[in-house]
Q: What sequence folds into this?
């Protein structure tokens, strides 16, 4: 089933009608299977390959939940934007056309939660442990709780590691970015980052990125290595620069009406299986990126560049204005709370 293309230009009423029609078509074609007798069917949609940390965590969740429920709760996973893509998955969840998503944290800014874009700030985190100080602490819990304002329930976070820059030339200094069309997620922070480097941000769904790179619609992009490898971007990008400039993580979310329709015991069963699957995803995120990097080196199609400390520092200085410029959008109190949480590592 080819990924649907959602037009953000449609009026809201037409978008809702389009999504309902899409869900009905999927059901008629068998893509959305009926729940088993006296059981529950969870439809879990995501936009990346099964071999990525997200894909592997989703599959682990399916295995754990189906085993522990004795098959009474079944999980159908739709990877690689087979069911919904970047532009329509949130609306599909809110309409009940799918039950679970694992969107990147950037996507919550687009639906009215710009505070989630603090995770997009470039060169903010030195290591994944810094991120988890946020996601597993009070600040992360407050962020998830806010999703109830849009009828969503945030069930947890997990990592895909740090992003690298790719193009058809090395990207080692700000001057290397000038004039490039760089694919970005729908995040004002990431777009501002690219503009600060002299590039032109182009917002595209993840599922369309490789095709856009191959056709020259965009010149480059940013990704963890596991996404770069599993989407075969190495076939259309000659250079990968290991900038580690930004973090890419996800939150698993469900529809509030669906979640509250479940029994308390089923919510507990699903929640425990999900927590274990997310811990598994976090554990393998670095491993999967390392494996992908080794595979890239072996393939030999893409030149891989490791930046010096000085080169990374120059890139970080170039994007420093992004932190000040986007502070008001993200929220000054959120920014202060973030800085205070990060300071605990230095003083602890």
A:
């Amino acid at each position: 089933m080819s990924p649907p293309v959602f037009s953000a230009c449609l009026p809201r009423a037409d978008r809702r009608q389009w999504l309902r029609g899409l869900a009905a078509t999927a059901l008629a074609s068998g893509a959305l299977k009926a729940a088993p007798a006296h059981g529950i069917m969870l439809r879990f949609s995501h936009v990346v390959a099964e071999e990525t940390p997200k894909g592997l965590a989703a599959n682990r969740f399916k295995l754990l939940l189906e085993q522990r429920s004795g098959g009474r709760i079944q999980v159908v996973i739709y990877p690689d934007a087979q069911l919904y893509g970047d532009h329509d998955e949130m609306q599909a969840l809110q309409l009940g056309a799918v039950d679970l998503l694992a969107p990147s944290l950037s996507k919550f800014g687009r639906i009215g939660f710009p505070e989630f874009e603090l995770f997009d700030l470039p060169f903010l985190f030195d290591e994944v442990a810094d991120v988890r100080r946020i996601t597993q602490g009070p600040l992360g819990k407050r962020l998830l709780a806010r999703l109830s304002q849009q009828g969503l329930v945030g069930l947890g976070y997990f990592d895909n590691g740090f992003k690298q820059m790719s193009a058809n030339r090395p990207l080692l200094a700000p001057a290397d970015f000038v004039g490039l069309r760089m694919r970005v997620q729908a995040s004002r922070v990431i777009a501002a980052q690219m503009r600060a480097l002299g590039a032109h941000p182009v917002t595209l769904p993840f599922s369309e990125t490789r095709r856009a790179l191959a056709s020259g619609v965009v010149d480059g992009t940013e990704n963890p290595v596991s996404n770069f490898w599993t989407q075969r971007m190495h076939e259309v990008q000659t250079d990968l620069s290991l900038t580690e400039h930004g973090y890419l993580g996800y939150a698993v979310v469900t529809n509030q009406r669906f979640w509250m329709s479940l029994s308390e015991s089923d919510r507990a069963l699903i929640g425990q299986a999900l927590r274990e699957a997310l811990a598994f995803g976090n554990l393998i995120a670095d491993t999967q990126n390392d494996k992908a990097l080794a595979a890239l080196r072996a393939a030999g199609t893409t030149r891989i560049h490791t930046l010096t400390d000085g080169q990374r520092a120059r890139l970080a200085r170039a994007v420093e204005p992004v932190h000040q410029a986007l502070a008001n959008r993200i929220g000054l109190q959120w920014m202060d709370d973030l800085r205070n949480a990060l300071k605990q590592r230095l003083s602890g």
Q: What stands out?
A: The CA atoms of residues 179 and 333 lie 35 Å apart. The chain has one domain: 12-347.
